[in-house]
Amino acid sequence: MKKLLSCIFLVFCSLCLGLAQGSEALAILKNTDWGWTPVGDSKVETGGASVEVFGSAQTISLARFPMREHTVSVVESDGPKAAITSRLGVDNKAVAAINGSYFDVELLTPVTYVKDEGRVLCDRTTDGARSNGMFRIRGRKGRRVDILQVDSLTTQRAARGWREAIVCGPVLIDEGKVVKYEDDGTRYYKKFYSRRHPRTLLGYTESGWLYFIVVDGRFPGQAEGMSIDELEVLCEALGLYEAINLDGGGSSTLWSRDEGVLNHPYDNKVFDHDGERIVPNVIIVK
To answer: Angle at CA 139, nearest 5°, toward 135 and 145?
Structure first.
């Protein structure tokens, strides 16, 4: 009985500590100066900061823009046409670009559903453990977007009538509420959800601003990365109404036309701007 009570007490203390750290981190991130700078004469702004939060060093890069003023689109360029995020941004005359969803690193082909300019280029999602959401775009100008939770049975229907769509995940914020993922005791949960990694995500506010975000990681003392729970605190601090996680790790890259690669991609394991990984799809803004 004493052992049981001791375990309950430790769990309770851990939860209290986690809540306290989350509240402190939320306050820090809400008050962070992101140094927003316009990209040329566009309404796209880029920013970033290095902060001490969650008891760790974090380096965060962002781009944001009012959706009514710019076109958002998915760019699929897989197999031998795959390229680094910055190259796909330049080739498609983008103002900013961010890496997309999960893929086969050997074949450089997507492993999640992708629809580009009305054409379904990958019709199934084989990465189902974390890919529970869809980012979809409607209209020729790509100025209406949505993020929603999907599964293998609802993906095709959810994409119907939308010009472009890409499945990724997990969904982080749904209609202003944090989506919580319980620890199921599996090794996968601990590896992907609980550990800190470089992360890529996008989301939008109720007022119509779309955010591209990269959190650098795996650089102790400089940029340690975030867990999924920590990433959701960042989303809350930025006031995102809907948000979804994209492919992270060595793929995480944010690029702008004026400044080039904004973050520190991990694929070369050096804290610089040169370590981009070849990817089959990106999301761009023009």
So the answer is: 30
Residue 88 lies in a domain: yes
Residue 51 pLDDT level (bands cut at 50, 70, 90): very high
Q: Amino acid letter at 184?
A: D
**Position 161 in a domain:** yes
Q: Is the pTM of this model over 0.90?
A: yes
Query: Could you give the CA distance from residue 101 to residue 7 in angstroms, rounded to a whole number?
Result: 39
pLDDT at 122 over 80: yes
What is the edge-to-edge ordering of all strands in the sheet holding 254-256? 72-76, 281-285, 96-99, 254-256, 260-261
**Of 133, 226, 223, 219, residue with least CA distance to 174:** 133
Which range of residues forms the domain containing residue 232? 32-285
**Separation CA 72–CA 45 (nearest Å):** 15
Q: In this structure, are residues 39 and 95 in contact, taking their beta carbons and an 8 Å threshold?
A: yes
